[in-house]
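From the methods appendix. Each design record in this collection lists the tokenized structure first, followed by the designed amino acid sequence. Records were kept in a plain field format so they could be parsed without special tools. The example shown here is representative of the layout used throughout.

RECORD:
FOLD TOKENS (298 positions):
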């Protein structure tokens, strides 16, 4: 007697009524299919070594062309290669993007590099003398002003072990008493209060309570000129330190420039390092470490 079980699944088949393999096929034009097809090639391990420079970059840059090895003293070409003879006919290099939303791998690499540089600036290493550990330093955060009321998650008392994975109970977003003049509706008819206790990762965090009331224009100007504002702030701090040294009777120091000329500079200087970060509302703010150094005469 012939079996009545299906040997191939039907499009409308449901449940476990079939003994056929229902695993969808892997097509070559998909990412999974392309990866599977690559692993079946005999030169797979050579290809891995070739793309290792791009590491786990999600958007690697493909370089194509001719590579020349030139003798520096004579200018003679001692070797030449073309990318056509390489795997995929290209050289891969990481994109180097610092935004985790664009390339998590490159952003993580930049984060680790930045940590090592900032650490060396505080305790020494990587060409920085260890004596800087005794220099005074300040960790400061420069935050943008308010451009309007946005949804926020406020925790007055943390009981969690890690702030990155905070699961503490948050306060109401924007709670106001009924007698508060700010309660009720905004001029555009939107609620001016929010009683929700937002969780970490809530999609509404940073979103204005009213798009019409929010000052988008000034926030765009702030983001555009935040780099120049940081430069002016650093200049103002250095000038203030120079005036303070002059009032305390500390003389200026003579140094020799790269061109061989001698000029006098302030006896103290700032050695800052900063990281720009986008807040949930989309405004740029800076985390900075500023170390105070003395200038040695030369």
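DESIGN:
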């Amino acid at each position: 007697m012939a079996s009545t079980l299906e040997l191939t699944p039907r499009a409308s088949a449901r449940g476990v009524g079939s003994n056929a393999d229902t695993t969808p096929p892997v097509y070559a034009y998909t990412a999974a299919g392309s990866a599977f097809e690559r692993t079946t090639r005999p030169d797979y391990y050579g290809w891995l070594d070739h793309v290792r420079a791009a590491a786990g970059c999600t958007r690697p840059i493909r370089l194509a062309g001719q590579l020349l090895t030139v003798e520096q003293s004579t200018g003679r070409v001692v070797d030449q290669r073309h990318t056509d003879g390489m795997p995929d006919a290209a050289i891969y290099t990481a994109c180097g993007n610092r935004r985790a939303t664009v390339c998590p791998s490159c952003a993580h690499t930049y984060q680790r590099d930045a940590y090592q540089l900032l650490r060396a600036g505080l305790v020494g290493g990587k060409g920085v003398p260890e004596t800087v550990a005794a220099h005074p330093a300040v960790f400061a955060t420069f935050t943008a002003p308010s451009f309007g009321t946005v949804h926020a998650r406020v925790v007055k008392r943390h009981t969690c072990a890690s702030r990155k994975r905070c699961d503490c109970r948050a306060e109401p977003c924007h709670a106001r008493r009924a007698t508060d003049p700010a309660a009720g509706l905004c001029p555009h008819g939107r609620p001016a209060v929010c009683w929700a206790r937002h969780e970490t990762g809530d999609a509404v965090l940073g979103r204005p309570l009213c798009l019409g009331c929010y000052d988008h224009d000034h926030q765009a100007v702030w983001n555009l000129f935040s780099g120049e504002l940081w430069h002016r702030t650093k200049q103002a701090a250095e000038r203030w330190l120079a005036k303070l040294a002059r009032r305390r009777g500390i003389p200026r120091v003579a140094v020799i420039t790269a061109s061989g000329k001698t000029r006098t500079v302030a006896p103290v200087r700032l050695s800052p390092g900063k990281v720009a970060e986008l807040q949930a509302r989309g405004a740029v703010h800076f985390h900075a470490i500023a170390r105070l150094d003395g200038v040695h005469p030369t």
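APPENDIX NOTE: The CA atoms of residues 56 and 203 lie 28 Å apart.
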